UniProtKB/TrEMBL annotation:
Top-rank taxon: Eukaryota
Family from the record: Belongs to the class I fructose-bisphosphate aldolase family.
E.C. code: 4.1.2.13
Name by which UniProt lists this protein: fructose-bisphosphate aldolase
Single biological process term from Gene Ontology: glycolytic process
Any one Gene Ontology molecular-function term assigned to this protein's record: fructose-bisphosphate aldolase activity
EC class name: lyase
Pathway named in the protein's UniProt entry: Carbohydrate degradation; glycolysis; D-glyceraldehyde 3-phosphate and glycerone phosphate from D-glucose: step 4/4
Record's keyword terms, sorted: Glycolysis, Lyase
One Pfam family matching this protein: Glycolytic
The organism of origin for this protein: Culex pipiens (House mosquito)
Length: 167
């Protein structure tokens, strides 16, 4: 006999779940998607993986770019990183049909082309889906032999909401 489930709370509300091992009630954010949000995500995914398309991973952190710049004796400044990203994004128009989506780094979301257009708007105008790296990098995992773990789960919901609002 199958029991019916209670209705889910609105997006972002908290739901109490029972942990099966301890039967202790624990607060858990249980966001779910509306049918409209599901369709939006499905449409985005289809655009990114359309035949002949790929993803441009332009989400290098300032530290990763520093290593790349050091190898060519370039100073790791915000302006040089902006110019580097602009070079990637404004490549020959023959590249444009091959890119379905671009992953940006936090800093990049707020940078602009030489003529003042925000990079995310520039890319969207060319039919590319814009995404953003939402984690905060890796740190050593205590008690392991050099393994790392990802930072940034705290505040993830708020960051994602802000990034969506910002483009």
């Amino acid at each position: 006999h199958r029991r019916s489930r209670p209705p889910l709370p609105p997006f972002g509300e908290y739901l109490l779940l029972t942990h099966p091992a301890t039967r202790v009630k624990m607060p858990h954010a249980y966001p779910f998607l509306t049918p409209e949000q599901k369709k939006e995500l499905s449409d985005i995914a289809q655009r990114i993986v359309a035949p002949g398309k790929g993803i441009l991973a332009a989400d290098e952190s300032t530290g990763s770019v520093a290593k790349r710049f050091q190898s060519i004796n370039a100073e790791n400044t915000e302006e040089n990183r902006r110019l580097y990203r602009q070079l990637l994004f404004t490549a020959d128009d023959r590249v444009k049909p091959c890119i379905g989506g671009v992953i940006l780094f936090h800093e990049t979301l707020y940078q602009k082309t030489d003529d003042g257009k925000v990079f995310s708007d520039y890319l969207k105008e060319r039919g590319m889906v814009v995404g953003i790296k939402v984690d905060k990098g890796v740190v050593p995992l205590a008690g392991t032999n050099g393994e790392t773990t990802t930072q940034g789960l705290d505040g993830l919901y708020e960051r994602c909401a802000q990034y969506k609002k910002d483009g």
